[in-house]
């Protein structure tokens, strides 16, 4: 007997990630905000590769660009680069223990920071604060929690009663 598909989980996860990205934070901890949308897109690219790939990452990034009001196309580029790397190494990454998977996601988030820095430097935009380089570490530490929560919602493994 197969489980019914929970089609609502993906759009709700994207909306929640966008809301977490828009949530006001004090200026001192604003640069430490994890890239929630990248964590959610990473989950979907890893767990549903037949339907969630580069196009999904691009459209999600454009939505983020509109929601965050930054440079149009920046989020789309960042998420497509991350999705491409994830697709390339997905077969190996899926079988890593959660600790190694978190390290790999941390590396991808660090790569995202480098891409953002290069893009801002090339366009002459304001550089990121130095504290922003800690955000990939926070995202790496959050990955196991995000993964388990999303997997539970997608598969419906929570207890009833």
Automatic annotation (TrEMBL):
Keywords: Cell inner membrane, Cell membrane, Cell shape, Membrane, Transmembrane, Transmembrane helix. The keyword Secreted does not apply. It is a multi-pass membrane protein. It is found in: Cell inner membrane; Cell membrane. Its main location: membrane. Pfam families: MreD (PF04093). NCBIfam families: shape_MreD. Belongs to the MreD family. Involved in formation of the rod shape of the cell. May also contribute to regulation of formation of penicillin-binding proteins. This is Rod shape-determining protein MreD.
